[in-house]
Amino acid sequence: MNHDESRALYDRALSVLPGGVNSSVRATRPYPFFVEHGDGAHVVDADGNRYVDYVMGYGPLLYGHDPPDAVQAAVQSHAADGPMYGAPTEVEVDLAEFVARHVPSVEMVRFVNSGTEATVSAVRLARGYTGRDKIVVMQGGYHGAQESTLVEGSPDGAEPSSPGIPSSFAEHTIPVPFNDTDAIEAVFEEHGEDIAAILTEPILGNTGIVLPVDGYLERLRELTEAHNSLLIFDEVITGFRVGGLQCAQGKFGVTPDVTTFGKIVGGGFPVGAIGGRSDIIEQFTPAGEVFQSGTFSGHPVTMAAGYEYLKYAAENDVYEHVNRLGERLRRGISEIAADQAPAYTVVGTDSMFKTVFTREGPGDGSEDVCDAGCRQRESCARFDHCPKTGADVSDAETERWERLFWQEMKARAIFLTANQFESQFVSYAHTDEDVEETLEAYKEAL
Ligand SMILES: *Cc1c(COP(=O)(O)O)cnc(C)c1O
């Protein structure tokens, strides 16, 4: 594979963009390939190399790079018509109604421009609604580039995880280990009166893919209810992917007070949203007092793309297709790992998948184990070895993924997410042949 063009572009980029990129995960080693165009489930780089794409824009591209005709047509027509106004449009109402109809927790929704903006606004909303300051988050959880949640530490003390954030911000944030019922109960015992909300992804989707153990999300629901705190599910990554149109909250049967969205709900364009019970969401200005506003919020092109995206999914076998291929990949990779690298854990659900390079695990693969990705099943022989928290994923062989494995897969024309933490996604454009080709590459590279 030749990468001369990408190399030359990266050379130029390094002079004018910090790290040569506009989002940190894109700076793959030794230099990223620059995409020239997408084609279904594939991307083609500046040197004409073609890869099977499982990055899928880091989540938004449910249909791959050629969305259904109705999406294309709606995007073209709204772009040509305005493209935006600073006055409301019908398509914002269409998308809001659709989301409210399908997602259990949502009666009302406010659209914004990124997942980060959604979680920032949700935290402000929770604080405004409850009159309390403290937010509980999961260690290793991700809520975008926002000051209140970029923290590290333990329930006993948190510090900002990035320079540039005053430590006083972290004073109001309590990080706890995911899946640890004792830890969250202790936090509520001590701080229950001051906690505005628990903000968590229902599945940790940006640090491996960590599913909740049985009863964990239910316990979060009980604790927040008992203490008059809000439960916020950050479904930016799981929304309209895990559990289909009802999202992960529908799949797990746990209904939060507030949900944040992003990624898929914008049909490939910049988006975020905060949805929930109307008495809470109506606290946003101008209905209420919690300030929230945005020049581009509810952008007609984005709203149209999102609406047509979701409508198409409601009327076609989209989730059936992506989930079936996701299952095939997880099962296939599990078999390869059992043969070649039994310590590794295959994770994921629905159309999300990842291999965590865990350092130990049961030996010969003959035991009763989950055969298509970790389900956090207590009777599974691997249960104690499978990641339960963000720390378990950080403790894996993260360097091996980044420095060796990712490159090996790229050389075999498979585009995976560049580090051990980010999820990979199957789109409606992927085929059984793509899966077979991918499994061959895993067999050689693992
Ligand atoms: C991607 C993501 C975000 C941030 O969304 P941006 O659009 O990148 O700002 C927040 N939360 C979760 C769970 C995400 O996966």
UniProtKB/TrEMBL annotation:
Organism annotation: Halobellus clavatus
GO MF annotation terms: glutamate-1-semialdehyde 2,1-aminomutase activity; pyridoxal phosphate binding; transaminase activity
Protein family: Belongs to the class-III pyridoxal-phosphate-dependent aminotransferase family. HemL subfamily.
Gene Ontology BP, a term: protoporphyrinogen IX biosynthetic process
Keyword presence, Mitochondrion: no
Pfam families, per the entry: Aminotran_3
Name of the protein in question: Glutamate-1-semialdehyde 2,1-aminomutase
Isomerase is among the record's keywords: yes
Modified residues (N6-(pyridoxal phosphate)lysine): 263
InterPro entries the record matches: 4pyrrol_synth_GluAld_NH2Trfase (IPR004639), Aminotrans_3 (IPR005814), Aminotrans_3_PPA_site (IPR049704), PyrdxlP-dep_Trfase (IPR015424), PyrdxlP-dep_Trfase_major (IPR015421), PyrdxlP-dep_Trfase_small (IPR015422)
